[in-house]
Amino acid sequence: MAEPQFSVRSAKARELAHRLARNELRIAFGIHKIRTDQRAARLPPTGSSPLAGDPLTEANRE
To answer: Which top-level group of life is the source organism from (predicted)?
Structure first.
């Protein structure tokens, strides 16, 4: 009888490596999403002046 090409141990190792890679991708995407959300929060809303609501600009305008 021929030996199986992959042992149970190597199949388990491949499964664990695959799960680790997927988890690393999820973490990397999560970090990217957090950074993107933070960057979007710092940008002014579309169509508004970048200085709208700035206390110094409002004081200078008066």
So the answer is: Bacteria
Q: Which residues lie below 8 Å from residue 51, measured CB to CB, with a gap of 6+?
A: 57
pLDDT digits (tens, 9 = 90+) for 16-31: 999 999 999 999 988 8
Higher pLDDT, 61 or 36: 36
Overall size of the chain counted in residues: 62
Nearest Cα to Cα of residue 28 among 40, 20, 39: 20
Structure tokens at 24: 């690393």
For the chain, what are the domain ranges? 8-44
